[in-house]
Amino acid sequence: MVAAFLADLFESHRAHLLSVAYRLTGSVSDAEDAVQESWLRLAGVHQSEIDDLRAWLTTVVSRICLDRLRSAAVRREAYVGQWLPEPVVTRLGGARDADPLEQVVRKQDTRMAAMVVLDTLTPPQRVAFVLHDGLSVPFDEIAELLGVSADAARQLAVRARKAVAGVPEPVPDAEHEAAVRRLLDALAEGDIVAVTAALHPDSRLVGDANGTTSTAVNVIDGADRIARFLLGLTGRYGIGDTDAAVLRYEFALVNGQLGLIVKRNDGRTRVVGFTVTDETIWGTYDHANPAKLSGVRL
Q1: Domain span at residue 254?
Q2: Would residue 11 count as lying in a domain?
């Protein structure tokens, strides 16, 4: 009876814990593993030792994620090409309470542009920023978790805040969708002027494949260069939503806003997410590494 009650209590915090873990690691698999490990640790602790279950679990998950962040830094050294956070891909108009991850990506702080910037932070900066600015955890508690002084924890958050300040605020879903569809329509027409106009002047395209595909790109900057690259792909492969296209796409939510699932005739899949600002595409994120698609929930 007590075990069942404790399990129900834990489940009531699962979406919150997944949100914390995903923002800390940028990995769906690591986030889910961290939450599961926190449950195992909870099962080994006497309940009289815990004053605030949510706060206790948040701290435990954060410690686990800090360890995973440090090991991820080692993995990146051998990674081929650019590194992107793992996307969370959910169905358009689906039952958004069916999976806790669907609740996680309702929040603006899990949009892909924000996750990309978090990946540029050091592990201590990321922990200090996510816990303090996202969850209002006091700096003395963050300091204890990181093994630094409260002043040092505060400075870590300040540096992280400066890095995150350059990320565009997420636009409303309707504006985001209109910008994505405008780009796709221009690509279908093969109009270089229209494609360039659909892209923000400071637009950036980032690809993450870890050497698994020949059609991957690392980073392309500028509307003109990206437009020519995308039109080249369209001309070569016939990207579209028809049977004649080698690369067929369907719409889905990528980290909560409209994106694409692109499938090749050979069965390989990639996920493309977008960031929109000023009614144009500011960021395009091409996730082609199969190992990073564990967050596809369709």
Answers
A1: 173-297
A2: yes
**How many domains does one find in the chain?**
2
Last residue of a domain, one of 21, 51, 78: 78
Looking at 63, 78, 93, the residue that finishes a domain is 78
Residues in the chain: 298
Distance CA 73, CA 268 (A): 27
For the chain, report the end-to-end CA distance as a whole number of angstroms. Answer: 35
- DSSP code string of 140-162: HHHHHHHTS-HHHHHHHHHHHHH
| E strand segments, the chain | 89-90, 199-208, 219-221, 247-254, 257-264, 269-277, 280-287, 296-297
Cα–Cα distance list, 117 to 26, 105, 211, 239, 297 (Å): 10, 16, 23, 29, 24
For the stretch 186-237, pLDDT in tens is 999 999 999 999 999 999 999 999 888 765 678 999 999 999 999 998 888 7
Q: Which residue has the higher pLDDT, 101 or 97?
A: 101
* Residue 227, amino acid: A
Q: Which residues, in sequence order, are bridge partners of residue 201?
A: none
